[in-house]
Amino acid sequence: MANNRVLTIDITNENITIVEATPSLKKQTLIHNVVIFETPEEGYEDGYVKDKDLLGTAIREQLNGAGITNKNVIFVLSSTKIVSREVMIPVVPDKKIAGIISANASEYFPVNIEDYVVSHSVLETVVSEEGEKNLRVLVVAVPQQMIRTYYEMASVAGLTVQSIDYLGNAMLQLIKTQTAANSTVMVVQIGMDSTVLNVVKGDTLLLQRTVPYGVNAVIAEVMEEKDVDASTALSLLQSERMITVDFDDDAVTGAFRYLINNIGRVMDYYSSRNPDKPIEDVYLTGDGALVRGIDGLFKIQLNVATKVMDSLYGVKFDDKINTQIYNPVYLVGSIGAALAPMGFLLKEQAAKEAGKGAMVACVAVLVLSILGSGAGCGIALFQNAAATAKKVKLENDINQIADAEVVYNNYISSQAELNDMLTLCDSTKISNEYMMEFWNALEGCLPENINVESIESSSSKVAITMLSADYDSIARLVTELREINCIENAFIASIGEKKNDETGEILYEYTVTCTYILPEYEATTEAPAADTSATEAPAADATDAE
Questions:
Q1: CA separation (Å) from 116 to 110, 173, 410, 497, 542?
Q2: What is the mean pLDDT for each group of 10 consecutive residues in the chain (546 residues)?
Q3: Which of helix, strand or coil describes residue 135?
Q4: Helices (H), 207-256
Q5: Separation CA 325–CA 194 (nearest Å)
Q6: Which domains does the chain have, with CATH numbers?
Q7: With contact defined as beta carbons under 8 Å apart, do 438 and 462 qualify?
Q8: Which residues are CB-neighbours of 55 under 8 A, at least 6 positions away?
Q9: Inter-residue contact 282 to 186 (CB < 8 Å)
Q10: Which residues contact 135 (CB under 8 A, 6 or more apart)?
């Protein structure tokens, strides 16, 4: 059993997570050891090992302290420098997929592909209405230099790199084992600096995005409010209910606004393409998942059932592991990487592995030729010539298919972008027209002695910050605002004093909030049909290549 054990190491700016497991996709995955410790300062940054000696030594000491003797390691990578994209390719044998991906990599990603290592994972076979089959493939590109830093660190730690995986794939591999075949869920891994989103139906990845925003922004708000350090702030967020279900209630809850708004936009993007597969549940993992009350905030703001993934089906922990300390929310990527890593290799390492395969093939051919020499050289030569001709023809056919695929992908990408722009334009038009109605009404009732400092508008609310010399004008304005037909619930949200630097006059600074009375909107055009090949990310996505 010990020979089947897998060692995974997941490094972030804050922590290094080590998991030793016996993985199983069909039976129970056994977790033998878990070690989590702080990442040494200045040792790591955004996916790169900055100090191989510092991190390598720290990892070696932790492994020795935990009694872990396994030397073959799978690293889990996460970085804003990693780019990913889902593409459609023709159905070809598994051994041909890498070649097609490699040939078209420069078309998939707007980077110098020579500086990247590209790997892939087949997501599903898609059948068109015409009965044509294609493969939907997740393609990920990782900077070559980033991978090299892990090899160098592994050498210091006394480890051998078995494989290198991408966090998005690792999450997918575990999520597939946690959800029902007929349910569609979104798993949100809230890290310190970024958040990874996966929409999964059964064992099929439908969408994957990264939002460059994590729980550090919320921690910073608590640090300022409570005058504490980062560690204490995180502990307070996890032990005390410091957030509510409404962004307007306090600054700490408001720090989640950017993240949840971006998640909401990704959900809208997904829904427009998959109207027949609505997201039924949201599962939270990662450092931010243990913030008290975060599930309630997500549920109210996103209007979808939400729960924290603090238990895992089909995963058994050794009795010595305290799951209160080593909560499963921290381990999704580490456990998932043990199941089916993508397998990024340095180019020279990949060439070495390919060379081994070629050597084995040559030996096999040599043995067969010796055994079969009595059959006649003439027949062998004839068969070889025929096979060579057939090989050349097939290669030409594949190249033609690959070229056509590039054109097809470009068309689909352009069509998807056009649909996105039309949808955005449509929704913006509605909002702007409605805000204009309110603005015209506001101009008609705004007293001359009131100055508007700012106005903020969303799809449901508008907030106006103004200056006035007296309370009476404020009261009159609020009264008149309540008579405007297009809004309701006009009230003073805050009021204070502000000194005019030029005149020395004391003015009253106040904010009035109102809620739009939204009209029923019937779309005049049908939503675009779901397109499984359209995989471009919304603008908020930091890791997906456009």
A1: 11, 23, 22, 57, 17
A2: 81 92 88 95 92 97 96 91 87 89 87 89 85 90 94 96 90 86 90 88 82 90 92 92 86 92 93 90 93 95 94 92 90 92 75 53 40 40 44 51 51 54 47 65 76 77 82 78 81 74 75 75 37 36 38
A3: strand
A4: 216-226, 230-239, 251-254
A5: 23
A6: 1-84+91-109+128-170+314-358 (3.30.420.40), 179-308 (3.30.420.40), 435-516 (3.30.1360.100)
A7: yes
A8: 11, 16, 39, 40, 43, 44, 49, 153, 156, 157
A9: yes
A10: 88, 89, 90, 91, 92, 97, 122, 123, 124, 125, 126
Please give the distance of CA 394 from its chain centroid, rounded to a whole number: 38
- Could you tell me which of 250, 305, 300 has the C-alpha nearest to residue 283? 305
Look up residue 286 and give its two tokens.
Answer: 């990662």
pTM (two decimals) = 0.62
Structure tokens, 474: 């404020």
Q: Tell me the C-alpha distance between 489 and 518, whole Å.
A: 13
Q: Is 359 helix (H, G, I), strand (E, B) or coil?
A: helix
The greatest distance separating any two alpha carbons of the chain, rounded to the nearest whole angstrom, comes to 111
Contact call for residues 194 and 542 (beta carbons, < 8 A): yes
Cα(187)–Cα(110) distance, integer angstroms: 28
The Cα 542–Cα 28 span in angstroms is 35
Within 446-517, residue ranges assigned H as helices are 471-481
Distances 368 to 157, 239, 387, 390, 480 between C-alpha atoms, Å: 44, 69, 16, 21, 95
Rounded distance between C-alpha atoms, residue 177 and residue 281, angstroms: 16
Closest CA to 5 of 17, 13, 24: 24
Evaluate whether 18 touches 68 at the Cβ level (below 8 Å).
yes
- Dihedral sign, Cα of residue 290, residue 292, residue 295, residue 298: negative
